[in-house]
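Troubleshooting: if your tokenizer reports a length mismatch, compare your output against this known-good record of 136 residues.
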Amino acid sequence: MKKIMIPDVILCILSAVLCLGTKFGFHACGPKEDGGWMACHWAEQAVFGLGIVMLVLSIMMTFLLKDGKTKSGIALSLAGMAALALAVPNHLIMLCMMTDMRCHSVMKPAVMIISIFILGFSIAAYIFHRKEDSET
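Known-good structure output:
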């Protein structure tokens, strides 16, 4: 029977929250009156794309893969993507100029908190899978 590690399952959940939450819960500002988008929309789209990739990789790591080395490599890639998602709002892609807008008050803190948790659990998953690999 395949052993499922708790950090892997938590990474699946956090990745799904980042992906779906960015789109439906803590999304950025809506369209402008003329139908165009503000810069924060593109930050939302970038985080959503990263969330999709993180969700797919965490599902693979949790349910499909068996090799500890492969799982630890995916865990490291998840850590890198979490760091990238952490940097997207207001560092790589600027948010709205007014700091009381939804992108600053809702999206940015949510993305930062979830990304930090993904970063921590991916490092934990890396450590667990390296130990698991060395025991076999």
